[in-house]
Specification:
The protein has 395 residues and is of the alpha/beta class. It is built from 15 helices and twelve strands. The structure holds thiamine diphosphate and magnesium ion. Thiamine diphosphate is lined by residues 159-162, 184, 186-187, 211-214, 237, 239, 241-244, 309, 312, 338-339, 341, 357.
Length: 395
């Protein structure tokens, strides 16, 4: 995901990008290939990325950080050097060994990839082309891809289902045309990212896709954009809840804490932005065109898309807490006023823990600059934090 837009995804050899979810072409090649060369990568194991599935594969890792070599994956070859130099050396060596001939049958490979992409898009086509109302996220993403001038736009996602849905399906073209951030961060991060993108590239159309839950956390950054006159467009998926956790934590359902409502065009208007409501698929492309026009005149835009949470793709095992019998009783929770972050820790057998994201951020970004991967957050780390049982937490 952080590397999305490093390669032009229209290239016939590009398999696509992924976060916790990825394209069929990338998923298939990751599992079936016999050699992976990771360029400029920490190869960190994370819920927000794809597993390497390293059995029987040769792993080559290039990074400029010595701490990343063999950190999470055992690599066969570590190349501790600048990535640009590595790519240059790779090209030179390949040319030396093969002349101007390709290794293998490149046309056959292109065809294979094209076939997988076709099958994948066909599988998703009922959602990508659906006219259902409220709109489903995938139709929204398709409309964005079809309407934007991809080479002159910069797009980013927000945390949760919006990220998992858009990363595989958005077509990144030029370098930095997509800001794929993560592993995760607080919802609403996309607005300041696009403010920064607009500062750096004033001529680009800058769009962030976010949910209404994300807007509730830090949507008021639209005021910053508006006051500073960094004319960005926010596409808000107004599905009335936190769809990322459809089964939710038990208390989500019981107390309705994941539900919300609002006329986001009015809220945006109150912060100096132009709000546009979209209730039908046919309204979305014109709304995006209108947003481009308004942005070009220097005003920020929020498109309030009345959307459905039905098809939001979250990864069920991530938050499936129903079967408590499989877990130890170590459920810890902290600061219930924060939305909880749920983590199934592989490192501590079946421990399931809740920790607040501020604590998670501390664990993942310790002062010494290290970077714990989430699945090494073990009980000893977590029990240091405030411990409350479910009944205390839910009250
Ligand atoms: C500070 C913080 N708290 C909680 C989370 C976990 N989290 C990720 S996305 C999300 C909310 C998503 O809701 P919304 O923006 O409405 O998107 P939807 O799931 O409905 O598509 C939450 C709570 C987080 N990443 N950071
Ligand atoms: Mg939502």
């Amino acid at each position: 995901m952080p590397g999305k837009s490093a390669m032009d995804e229209r290239h016939p050899l590009c398999l696509g990008a992924g976060s916790g979810l990825t394209t069929m072409a990338a998923g298939k090649h990751l599992s079936e290939c016999d050699l992976i060369m990771a360029l400029g990568s920490s190869l960190t194991r994370t819920f927000y990325g794809q597993p390497i599935r390293s059995n029987n594969k040769v792993l080559i890792q290039n990074t400029d950080n010595p701490h990343d070599i063999n950190k999470d994956e055992s690599v066969d070859i570590g190349l501790l050097v600048d990535t640009k130099l590595t790519i240059r050396a790779l090209i030179d060596e390949t040319n030396d060994q093969t002349g101007d001939k390709c290794i293998g049958n490149i046309e056959k490979t292109k065809l294979e990839i094209a076939e997988i992409k076709k099958a994948w898009l066909e599988e998703w086509s009922p959602l990508l082309t659906s006219d259902e109302e409220p709109l489903n996220t995938y139709r929204v993403i398709r409309e964005i891809v079809q309407t934007l001038d991809l080479e002159n736009s910069i797009v980013t996602h927000d945390a949760g289902a919006p990220r998992d849905s858009i990363v595989p399906f958005y077509t990144a073209t030029r370098p930095h045309s997509y800001v794929g951030w993560g592993k995760t961060t607080h919802p609403g991060f996309g607005i300041p990212l696009m403010i920064g993108a607009k500062m750096a590239s004033p001529d680009k159309f800058c769009l962030n896709l976010m949910g209404d839950g994300a807007f509730g956390m830090s949507g008021t950054d639209l005021e910053t954009a508006s006051r500073s006159r960094f004319a960005i467009t926010t596409v808000l998926l107004n599905n009335g809840n936190i769809a990322t956790y459809p089964d939710g934590f038990p208390v989500f359902r019981k107390y309705g804490v994941g539900k919300m409502q609002g006329d986001y065009t009015k809220i945006a208007g109150g912060m100096g932005a132009v709000g546009i409501t979209v209730k039908k698929t046919s309204e979305l492309a014109p709304a995006l065109e209108e947003a481009k026009r308004i942005n070009a005149e220097g005003q920020i835009v929020l498109i309030d898309v009345h959307s459905s949470s039905l098809w939001s793709r979250a990864r069920l095992p991530f938050y499936r807490l129903k079967d408590r019998s499989q877990t130890t009783s170590n459920c810890v929770a902290a600061s219930w006023d924060n939305v909880m972050f749920c983590q199934r820790s592989k490192a501590s057998s079946d421990l399931i823990c809740f920790i607040s994201c501020s604590h998670l951020a501390r664990l993942m970004n310790p002062p010494n600059g290290g970077n714990h991967r989430p699945d090494t957050l073990c009980a000893t780390n977590i029990v240091n934090f405030l411990q409350v049982d479910d009944s205390t937490a839910s009250s």
